[in-house]
Write a structure and sequence with these properties.
This is Sporulation integral membrane protein YlbJ. The protein has about 400 residues and is an all-alpha fold. It has one domain. About 80% of the residues lie in helices and about 0% in strands. The chain has 17 helices and no strands. Helix 2 crosses helix 17 and helix 5 packs antiparallel against helix 6.
């Protein structure tokens, strides 16, 4: 079996190299598109969350939150209370923050390997700005659809967490004898924070420097994966492999009573969610069908994001297979929720032509997210450039002092 894996990997990279050499123009354009996505959106949107997460862990605040959330996270998801922090940060910042935080907590032994595999399976999700601003407004031109997509996506994520709580449950036998608190005392949580803070021996300046450097290095790795899968997806299209795959996928969509015209968009989404979402939004089919397909794409996350997560998890003993299985579940759950929620959350609220002052809270969230996303795209390159300059300065100082 290992020999076949070696043969497959070798054939894959030979194919990729050959297609890049024979189609340099298409490869260059795909590289530019991937780099632009990372430069304008991914880097500036994830960097603040990565740095703040590193600081919160270093100062022991995550342990404080973990003690408080233990009665909630343990019975529902069978993960420690610190998982609540990872879940919140993962939802707010998007892929692959959940994997990075889970890896960091595993390295600090705040999670067992099984708990980490459960946690990472449902803490990686798309951020609200992308769902509301890019997909609903930018690709679909239906702002109100963002409520359906976000609800289906996050409900599907939580459903994955509940499903994965049964993953290797026998490994939790050692927890049954632990004393359980319905409401853990604030004093216990503060003691955990104080103990973690005292255990941190690095000075404040070094903590800040390490947080910035670790975050930027992770984002460099993410950028490499984005560019690689952008090129790979384009090469499959150039040599017409996607046309062959679309035949089988078209039949599959028909059996699920979905338009076969969405086959190419679905294939693109299996590799990269942004391209797949954009292609889905441009198809001339019913809005319900497009909503179901794009919900699956957002839940599955695409091989590009999954490769990023695999690269992050490789620093620990956390296995990738449970995460991949969870992505399939998330895609299915999100598609089902999108079908169930489309009528009550979109059809009944489809009239957006309301007078000034008549917008309710959900509509204000949609419009605010759209504006914020557009501002992020405009300011993204400047933020990325400044961050890289700071990183180079810190790295130079580290080399000089080391």
């Amino acid at each position: 079996m290992k020999k076949w894996n070696t043969l497959f990997i070798a054939a894959f990279f030979i194919f990729l190299t050959a297609t890049v050499i024979t189609h340099p123009q298409a490869s260059l354009q795909a590289s530019k598109n991937g780099l632009a996505m990372w430069w304008e959106v991914v880097f500036p949107s994830l960097l603040p969350f990565f740095i703040l997460s590193e600081l919160l862990i270093s100062f022991g605040i995550v342990r404080f939150v973990g003690v408080l959330l233990e009665p909630f996270m343990r019975p529902i998801f069978r993960v420690p209370g610190v998982g609540g922090f990872v879940l919140a940060m993962g939802m707010a910042s998007g892929f692959p923050s959940g994997a990075k935080l889970t890896t960091r907590l595993r390295q600090e032994r705040q999670l067992t390997r099984i708990e980490a595999e459960r946690l990472v399976s449902f803490t990686n999700s798309s951020n609200p700005l992308f769902i509301f601003g890019a997909v609903a407004v930018g690709f679909f031109h239906h702002p109100a659809l963002g409520i359906v997509l976000a609800s289906a996506h996050y409900l599907g994520n939580l459903a994955v967490g509940v499903t994965m709580r049964g993953y290797k449950a026998r490994h939790d036998a050692h927890l049954r004898s632990r004393k359980k608190f319905l409401f853990p005392p604030f004093k216990e949580a503060f003691n955990a924070l104080h103990t973690a803070r005292l255990a941190e021996k690095r000075p404040l300046g070094q903590i800040l420097s390490d947080a910035v450097m670790s975050s930027v290095q992770t984002l460099f790795m993410i950028g490499g994966f984005i560019i690689l899968f952008s090129v790979f997806s384009k090469m499959l299209s150039v040599v017409h492999v996607t046309d062959l795959l679309s035949i089988g996928l078209g039949y599959m969509l028909q059996t699920m009573h979905l338009p076969p015209e969405l086959d190419l968009a679905m294939i693109a989404g299996l590799f990269e969610i942004t391209l797949g979402s954009q292609m889905t939004g441009s198809q001339e089919v019913t809005l319900l069908a497009k909503t179901i397909v794009v919900s699956f794409i957002l839940g599955f996350s695409g091989f590009s994001v999954q490769a990023q997560v695999a690269g992050i998890l490789a620093a620990t003993d956390i296995r990738f297979k449970p995460f991949f299985f969870a992505r399939l579940l998330h895609g299915i759950y999100a598609a089902v929720f999108a079908f169930l929620l489309f009528k009550p959350l979109y059809v009944s609220r489809s009239d957006m032509a309301l007078p000034a002052g008549a917008f309710d809270a959900s509509q204000q969230v949609v419009m605010f997210s759209s504006v914020l996303w557009n501002q992020l795209v405009k300011a993204g390159p400047f933020i990325t450039l400044c961050s890289m300059i700071v990183y180079i300065a810190l790295y130079y100082r580290k080399l000089k002092n080391g």
